Each structure stands twice: as structure tokens, then as C-alpha cells.
Amino acid sequence: MTIEERFDRIEHLTAGIAEERRKDREEYKTLWRDGQRQINELGIGLNALRNKVEDLAVETRLRFEQVADRFDQVGQRIDQVGGRIDQVGERVDKLVSAIGQLIAKPSN
Question: Which residues make Cβ contacts (< 8 Å) with residue 9, sequence separation at least 6?
């Protein structure tokens, strides 16, 4: 093998290595861009998820407030009905007492 052939072979190998490096750089750039795109998509998805969670938290808080208001209304209604039951109980007691007094009176 002559010196000229050796130089040609070295140049060929060097050109092959340079071509491989160029291809590797392109592949790395593509992988980096894909990674960046995926990171950006993930960030957008996380923001959307965070917004949904915040919306659900607000909705849940409002529903709890509505339930609490409804419980208050039911409690007030129970108190009203309880007061009426007490009044009915008092009236029944008076009626029973009056019937007892009527029975206890001697008949003429």
C-alpha cells in the first residue's frame, strides 16, 4: 500500500467518522427537541389539571355551603315542629286532665 493510498484511506475513514458525528448531532438535536416538546406538553397538561382541581375545589366548597345552609333550614324546621309537638302535648295533657275531672265529678 502506497502512502497515497494510506492517505486516501485515512481521509475516507475521517470523512466516515465526521459523517457519523454529523448524523449523531442531528439525532441528538431531534431527541432534544422532542424532549422539550414533551416537557412543554406536560407543563400545559399540568396547568389544565391544576385549573380543573381548583374549579372542583370551588364547586365542592359551594356545595358544602349549600348543604350546611340546608341543614340549618332543616334544623329550624325541626325546632318549629318540635315546638308544635310540645304545644300538642300540652293540649293533650289539658284535655286528659279535663276528661279526668269530668269523670271524677259525681253525676246528678
Answer: 1
Among residues 23, 25, 45, 22, the alpha carbon closest in space to that of 33 is found at 25
d(CA 45, CA 43): 5
What is the spatial distance between Cα 97 and Cα 82, in angstroms, rounded to a whole number? 22
Per-residue pLDDT reduced to its tens digit, 39-48: 999 999 999 9
What is the length of the chain? 108
Tell me the three-class secondary structure of the chain, residue by residue.
CCHHHHHHHHHHHHHHHHHHHHHHHHHHHHHHHHHHHHHHHHHHHHHHHHHHHHHHHHHHHHHHHHHHHHHHHHHHHHHHHHHHHHHHHHHHHHHHHHHHHHHHCCCC
- pTM (2 d.p.): 0.53
